[in-house]
UniProtKB/TrEMBL annotation:
Family: Belongs to the acylphosphatase family.
Keyword Hydrolase: yes
Highest taxon listed in the record's lineage: Bacteria
Protein name (Swiss-Prot/TrEMBL): Acylphosphatase
Length: 90
């Protein structure tokens, strides 16, 4: 099955709690690529690319995030496939 990409906006108490670091760690564990990036409105934007099962696994993880975070909502945004070499914190 070909690789896919999904883009998420994670809302809640997700900045200043290591959310991007933990997301990057989980993404690398799942062999996905992409990035986690703080947004000015207090959300975190996450782009995830890889095998559909791995991308879905990271999506499920984003619903809770690390213990230090309080995720209120995860919104999926449409995106086209992009090639990333690794998972990065932006």
């Amino acid at each position: 099955m070909p690789d896919i990409c999904k883009k998420f906006i994670v809302e809640g108490h997700v900045q200043g709690v290591g959310f991007r670091y933990h997301t990057c760690h989980e993404g690398l564990k799942l062999n996905t690529t992409g990035y986690a990036k703080n947004q000015p409105d207090g959300t975190v934007e996450v782009m995830v690319c890889g095998r559909p099962t791995d991308v879905d696994a990271l999506e499920r993880w984003l619903m809770t995030g690390p213990r230090t975070a309080h995720v209120q909502r995860v919104v999926r945004e449409p995106c086209e496939y992009q090639l990333y070499r690794s998972f990065k914190i932006l």
